[in-house]
Design brief:
Layout (H helix, E strand, L loop, with lengths): L5 E4 L2 E4 L15 H11 L8 E10 L7 E10 L4 E10 L4 E11 L23 E2 L11 H4 E9 L2 E11 L11 H9 L2 H4 L8 E5 L1 E6 L8 E9 L4 E10 L3 E14 L1
Antiparallel strand pairs: 1-2, 2-4, 3-6, 3-11, 4-5, 5-6, 7-8, 8-9, 9-12, 10-14, 11-14, 12-13, 13-14
Length: 262
């Protein structure tokens, strides 16, 4: 039994088979490396005083299942708003993913009730339908590391879908997953759970992932309400609203898709 998505190895993180994605048996799903970049971002100074408000991940190359390094820095300091940058590279130093975003100083505000968007979460996970991922022909991978329960739609049902996802294993061995890591490891599934095209005929791979966070989620389950929007020119998007169980909406995710026939 594999214990985590990544095993620490000096200043590297050795990816396990749990990171494997659906498109290439030798490559990682984008969710785990995005969460590992989040792991590095959370270790920047003053992390307890700031919250990530927006982060965009640029997927420059396929991320192989092997050792990777993550680094983060504050690119634009500020007392209330800071821009951060992070990079994930292979053991030889080639950058495979980049992240850039904003973190904002947290505050306690007494806001009028009418200013707050009422947002009810989907039906809870216990009312959902447990589902395996679409066939990957691999024993281990992201598909075995994540528990999925659909409350609308499904992997093999074309069209919008709503699902709850929960990590079966920690992101990094020996480390309890944080709310940000739980959200980022799940936020990349929008195009997978809401496929508008038959995956046996078409590829619909995202080249980026942008996540807006209004607050941090609570609990182990992350809800994703997603729709995939392909176009005949080979370009599309996937849009997701992100939830937690107790308090509803936590933010949104957007993916840019490259669509082609297999």
């Amino acid at each position: 039994m594999l214990d985590a998505f990544y095993e620490p190895d000096g200043d590297l993180f050795r990816a396990t088979e749990l990171t494997r994605g659906p498109w290439d048996p030798g490559a990682q799903h984008a969710g785990p490396p995005a969460a590992l970049l989040g792991f590095a971002i959370e270790r920047l100074p003053e992390a307890d005083e700031f919250q990530v408000g927006r982060v965009t991940f640029e997927i420059l190359r396929s991320v192989p299942i092997g050792p990777v390094r993550v680094e983060a820095q504050v690119a634009r300091p500020g007392k209330r708003v800071q821009m951060f940058e992070a990079a994930l590279s292979d053991a030889e130093g080639e950058v495979l993913m980049r992240a850039r975003g904003w973190r904002l100083r947290k505050a306690r505000l007494d806001l009028p009730g009418e200013a707050l968007l009422a947002s009810q979460p989907p039906a809870p996970p216990e009312e959902g339908r447990a589902s395996d991922f679409f066939p990957t022909e691999q024993e281990h991978g992201y598909h075995s590391a994540m528990e999925v329960r659909f409350v609308a739609g499904g992997f093999l049902e074309p069209g919008p879908a709503t699902a709850w996802l929960r990590m079966r294993q920690p992101l990094v061995a020996g480390e309890e997953p944080t709310p940000l890591q739980r959200l980022l490891v799940a936020a990349d599934v929008g195009n997978g759970i809401s496929a508008a095209l038959d995956f046996r005929r078409f590829l619909f791979i995202n080249v980026d992932l942008t996540v807006h966070l209004e607050r941090m989620p609570k609990g182990e389950w992350i809800g994703v309400d997603a729709a995939t929007l392909p176009r005949p020119n080979g370009i599309g998007t996937a849009e997701s609203t992100l939830f937690d169980v107790d308090n509803g909406r936590v933010g949104r995710a957007l993916q840019t898709l490259l669509i082609s026939e297999r």
